[in-house]
Amino acid sequence: MxxxxxxxxxxxxxxxxxxxxxxxxxxxxxxxxxxxxxxxMDAVALAAGVSKMxxxxxxxxxxxxFEACVAYRxxxxxxxxxxxxxxxxxxxxxLTRIAQQFVSxxxxxxxxxxxxxxxxxxxxHPDICxxxxxxxxxHVNQFVRAYLRQxxxxxxxxxxxxxxxxDQFLALCLGRLHLKATLGLGxxxxxxxxxxxxxxxxxxxxxxAAR
Length: 211
Known about the structure:
- By secondary structure, the chain is mostly helical.
- The chain folds into two domains: 14-59, Homeodomain-like (Arc Repressor Mutant, subunit A); 79-208, Orthogonal Bundle (Tetracycline Repressor, domain 2), CATH 1.10.357.10.
- The protein has helices at residues 17-34, 41-48, 52-58, 62-75, 91-107, 109-121, 126-135, 137-153, 162-182, 190-207.
- The protein is elongated and about 60 Å long.
């Protein structure tokens, strides 16, 4: 199973990947600190140390830049994955790895904060929320669905509806403790998370074991 493609600018291959990274880093910090509405392309260019022309040569506008920031952060979940770690014949090990990476991503302060920002934009900027959903949550879900299809093809799991199964798996990974974290009521320890993920994976495997 191939990993998601690395982040590239929406308007062609960047001349300087390091400069693109500076733009993404600066924009991400701006979005988290100020919220989507209060961020300007001028401010991002200044923070990144690039000209507005350079910024617009890489991103058509603020919406595209925000989408790229979300996609870049989401892709960080997949950087350590390879075909050995995600063996379709070993779903328990593979799903445990996916669960650990997914929960680690979702527990990160910047990811929690950007979800809070999105909730605030839900009624005023549904288009931005749609971009966020496709670049973040939907991207992760697609990755899980791709692995589950391979596990089914390998005869390791028996799943009639891959989409429903992926939703169930990711929902199991988060649960009540993630809602508490999002509300600022504290995060579980890494040990607690690891124990819970092992149980969640075991429950999922039991429900979809090959017949």
